[in-house]
Specification:
The complex is a heterodimer of chains A (249) and B (326).
Chain A: E1 3-14, E2 17-23, E3 26-28, E4 32-36, H1 43-50, E5 58-63, E6 66-67, H2 76-79, E7 81-83, H3 96-105, H4 125-134, H5 150-163, E8 168-172, H6 180-193, E9 198-202, H7 206-212, E10 215-220, E11 223-228, H8 230-235, H9 237-244
Parallel strand pairs in A: 4-9, 4-10, 7-8, 8-9
Antiparallel strand pairs in A: 1-2, 1-3, 1-5, 5-6, 10-11
Helix pairs in contact in A: 3-4, 3-5, 4-5, 5-6
Chain B: H1 13-30, H2 37-59, H3 68-84, H4 89-111, H5 116-136, E1 153-154, E2 158-159, H6 163-185, H7 188-198, H8 200-205, H9 210-236, H10 246-259, H11 266-280, H12 287-302, H13 306-322
Antiparallel strand pairs in B: 1-2
Helix pairs in contact in B: 2-6, 2-9, 2-10, 2-11, 3-4, 3-5, 3-9, 4-5, 4-9, 6-9, 7-9, 10-11, 10-13
């Protein structure tokens, strides 16, 4: 299978500090790929570079062989890339159903027409409901999103992301801050939609990574340390050292 | 939970809000028989102004601190064009809306690049430029303003010099502006606007150009503020520096906060309260500002979302008590 996402010598400097240096990441089509590493390894910076929320100092980002290095963040969904956020990102004052619908709406020609009535969006209601059904939020559709529990906000965010029907999903710590039950639920959701899509996630929860991910890239100090499947990576002495310090190697 | 139609909000507000708007409209139709028409005109123009401001403050989450610039610019544009050009009043007002909206594009384009306090400061600075422009240019006549502006004949046919006729003309134009605003809020675009307000980064990640969306709201808001300013100038036959003064910019924020931001009826109630207060407390002179300040502080401290928040609470209590399900 081909590469869906590739970076070439991706580098980001903040003043004198080199947060990401010469990262050559290769994500294969259909994979669930994890980006892990200790605190300050440059995971979040790399993630923000890939999602275009930051501009790289140098290097290239290719999506399906196409150079997207200078794309704007709002252009990515059109290309087929959608990101999620570490702090669950919902539209708090809108209802659960409206949250999903506003994502579905983008594909319509009338998305930004301020002279059309709201009823012109009713055509999306069924689709919104089926997405909410899929993440178990159907019963909460008329509640304001800010009133949902943390785990349900995460589920709503996933439903909203799925509404974009992306080819590549970039997830920023999808299980952070969740309780045990919610972690399992979200992990199952991720697994089910990864069947037809490619996923790249930054994740701290190693048990989630070990059970879900085909391929793992370990970052330390802004560079790639090791890449491989969970067994290779978890036995690598350099990784153990990076995570636990030299004493445990 | 039962399934509720997606158009409905879970709060009881939509129900009473609609009823209240219809009652207010009925009142507006018969009110000039009991109340001085020009006082009602003042209320209508400020309701429109506050509602226009609410579009950026309540629905786009932008704390603009210079909205008087749009009100005042149209005020001067309408006054000067009606006075010096052979045009009918509706053309003069359209001209006012156009210049305000055009300035809205420019000011908005400059200001929306910054957020929060910086946005407020930029809009204030730009509005001050407009103020000093009108304080300086000769044709605006400084402190005197442009006086005895002719109201003219609507469509060249109906003489507006009678206050009663003028009132119904203003009411008609007001309704066009207000209903347009309601449509913008409840449109596909309105949904995206609320999404950008609630979480800008997320809206961008869904493929929306947040700055463009805010700029559209800012422009519409500026144009409608201009509509209010133009109507005001024509009715009172005067455009003066108080129309572009920063105190007016502060007043419109006050109206929206007292009434309830991000609701359709909040700015209406807020504007009525503030204008009525200024009118009936006028004999107290400068004390009006003290009263205004006290009421403002009390409102902010005790009400979560202005008058609307209080009515919401009462409506909810009533619904819970009567067991009526929404």
């Amino acid at each position: 299978m081909g590469l869906i996402l590739e970076t070439r010598d991706l580098t980001k400097r903040f003043g004198a500090f080199q947060a990401v240096s010469n990262v050559n990441l290769k994500v294969e089509q259909g994979a669930i790929h994890a980006l892990i590493g200790p605190n300050g390894a440059g995971k979040t910076t790399t993630f923000n570079l890939l999602t275009k929320f930051l501009q790289p100092t140098s290097g290239q980002i290719l999506f399906n062989g196409r150079d997207i290095t200078s794309a704007q963040p709002q252009d990515l969904p059109k290309a087929g890339i959608v990101r999620s956020f570490q702090i669950s990102a919902v539209f708090g004052e809108m209802t659960v159903a409206q949250n999903v619908r506003v994502a579905l709406q983008r594909q319509l020609k009338i998305a930004l027409q301020f002279w059309r009535p709201l009823s012109s969006l009713s055509q999306l209601n069924d689709k919104a409901d089926s997405l909410l059904e899929a993440v178990g939020l159907r019963d909460f559709r008329s509640i304001k999103a800010k009133e949902l529990s943390y785990g349900r906000k995460r589920a709503l965010e996933i439903a909203t992301t799925l509404a974009m029907d992306p080819e590549l999903l970039l997830l920023d710590e999808p299980t952070s801050g969740l309780g045990h039950e919610d972690v399992d639920r979200i992990a199952a959701l991720i697994q089910s939609f990864a069947k037809t899509r490619t996923l790249l996630m930054v994740e701290h929860n190693l048990s989630v990574v070990s059970s879900l991910c085909d391929r793992i890239t370990v970052l330390t100090r802004g560079s790639i340390l090791v890449e491989g499947n969970y067994n290779t990576v978890s036995r690598d002495p350099a990784v153990i050292e990076a995570y636990l310090g030299t004493g445990h190697a | 939970m039962t399934t509720i139609d997606i158009k409905q909000q879970p709060v009881a507000r939509l129900e009473w809000e609609k009823v209240a708007l219809v009652i207010l409209l009925a009142l507006a139709l018969i009110a000039p028989s009991f109340v001085y028409p020009l006082f009602l005109v003042r209320i209508l123009t400020f309701v429109l102004f506050a509602s226009a401001y609410n579009l950026i403050f309540g629905y786009a989450g932008l704390l603009g601190f210079g909205h008087a610039a749009f009100f005042g610019l149209a005020s001067y544009a309408v006054a000067q064009s009606a006075k010096t050009l052979p045009i009918t009043p509706e053309i003069a007002i359209l001209f006012g809306v156009f210049v305000s909206a055009a300035m809205g594009v420019v000011f908005g384009w400059l200001a929306i690049r910054r957020q929060g306090l910086y946005f407020a400061m930029i809009t204030l600075a730009l509005a001050q430029i407009v103020y000093f422009f009108f304080a300086q240019v000769e044709w605006a006549h400084g402190e005197d303003g442009i006086q005895s502006v002719p109201r003219g004949h609507f469509l060249g046919l109906i003489d507006l010099s009678d206050n009663m006729v003028m009132y119904y003309f203003v009411l008609g134009v007001f309704l066009i502006g207000f209903l347009f605003l309601l449509r913008v809020i409840a449109s596909p675009y309105g949904e995206v606007l609320k999404a950008v307000r609630d979480n800008e980064a997320r809206a961008i990640s869904l493929g929306y150009d947040a700055n463009a969306i805010k700029l559209i709201a800012f422009t519409i808001s500026a144009g409608l503020a201009g509509l209010a300013g133009g109507l005001n100038a024509l009715s009172f036959q005067l455009a003066s520096l108080s129309d572009v003064h920063y105190l007016l910019s502060a007043e419109v924020i006050l109206m929206v906060l007292i009434g309830g931001a991000a609701t359709t009826i909040g700015p209406v109630l807020g504007a009525v309260v503030v204008v009525a207060m200024q009118n009936y407390f006028a004999p107290f002179g400068a004390w009006v500002l003290v009263f205004q300040g006290v009421i403002f502080v009390v409102c902010v401290l005790t009400m979560r979302n202005g008058i609307v928040g209080v009515i919401d609470m009462l409506a909810k209590a009533w619904v819970d008590k009567s067991g009526k399900a929404y």
